[in-house]
Design brief:
Elements lengths: L9 H24 L2 H35 L1
Length: about 70
């Protein structure tokens, strides 16, 4: 009765889970020790600085345009 049933075996499932755990561990280790988090933080800081500079430039243009419109 069970001869025609197909499916995944418990051994195959356990092997797959073990491989996934190993890959996750290696990935997390590389991300933390490889400085990936530090690079992301410095990139976020650089983005914030560029955004602030852009906001200053837009504000200056707005003041210049408003000055022209009021004259």
């Amino acid at each position: 009765m069970l001869k025609n049933q197909k499916g995944i075996t418990l051994v195959a499932l356990v092997i797959t889970i073990v491989i996934l755990i190993i890959l996750a561990t290696v990935s997390i280790t590389i991300a933390l020790n490889g400085g990936l988090v530090g690079h992301a933080e410095s990139g976020a800081d650089a983005y914030k600085a560029a955004q602030d500079e852009e906001t200053k430039g837009i504000t200056n243009v707005e003041h210049w345009v408003n000055g022209l419109l009021t004259e």
